[in-house]
Specification:
The complex is a heterodimer of chains A (98) and B (130). With 98 residues, chain A is an alpha+beta fold. Helix content of chain A is 39%, strand content 33%. In chain A, helix 1 packs antiparallel against helix 2. The longest helix of chain A has 26 residues. Chain B has one domain. Classes of the chains: A alpha+beta (98), B alpha+beta (130). The interface between A and B is medium-sized, with 28 and 26 residues.
């Protein structure tokens, strides 16, 4: 049971990173918005079943001399014997000139 | 026709039936170690390794797309370093294991970027923005 939960949490970690990276990429385009980023992340996560979405957070951060969009995706794996496992992944992408 | 079961036959010979606990052999401790600890550990270890490789592949793909965009837009080397640091921090990797390179194709009208994250290598192309 523990092995299954850890393995599934590791898989969720990968999916969360993928969703965060895709969302950051969308949000950082010239016409990108946090709403579009959220939509893209939800599309990536749509195939997951039984997983609770902890939240999708979009922030503007300063990287080097430019600005970047940072997207954090938080997921909670299904409850098994030992409770849910929370995974959070963050990805950043440089903003295109707007 | 012999209708006597094998268990009955063994009993008649004075030995314990085949299903009797007396004939069980092996070690409970060894079984616990192999089935209860070693096998799940190997499964989880394999799964974590696989997930890590997949995450590196995704990161390399994302980095290549972002880097080719920055090169097509003519951004500087500070952004390149920041991108590498961002990915390395996010995946808890050594900065040296994240590499970026680019080259121009088709008389300078197309830029091709290659990103390496760990063992994963991805390439992206984009037309240079005027």
């Amino acid at each position: 049971m523990v092995a299954a939960q850890i393995s599934y949490a590791a898989y969720l970690n990968t999916v969360a990173y993928d969703a965060a990276a895709e969302a950051a990429s969308v949000a950082s385009t010239a016409n990108g918005t946090p709403a579009l980023a959220r939509l893209r992340a939800e599309q990536v996560l749509a195939s997951l079943s039984g997983v609770r979405l902890g939240g999708i957070e979009t922030n503007e951060v300063v990287l080097a001399d430019g600005t970047a969009t940072s997207v954090s995706v938080c997921l909670v794996s299904p409850l098994l014997m030992f409770g849910g496992v929370t995974v959070e992944q963050t990805a950043e992408s440089f903003n295109e000139p707007r | 026709m012999n209708l006597v079961s094998s268990n009955e036959r063994t009993s008649k010979r004075g030995t314990a039936p085949a299903t009797s606990p007396v004939t069980d052999y092996g070690s409970v401790a060894l079984e616990f170690l192999i089935c209860g600890l070693l096998a799940p550990t190997l499964v989880v270890g394999g799964f974590l390794t696989l997930a890590s490789a997949q995450r590196s592949q995704i990161a390399a793909q994302q980095l290549a797309r972002e880097y080719v965009r920055s090169q097509a837009l003519g951004l500087g080397s500070q952004e390149e370093q920041a991108m590498r640091e961002s990915v390395a921090d996010g995946l808890r990797l050594d900065l040296d294991s994240v590499e970026l390179s680019s080259r121009l194709l088709e008389q300078g009208s197309v830029v091709e970027a290659t990103a390496r994250v760990g063992a994963a290598v991805e390439t992206a192309r984009m037309r240079v923005q005027k």
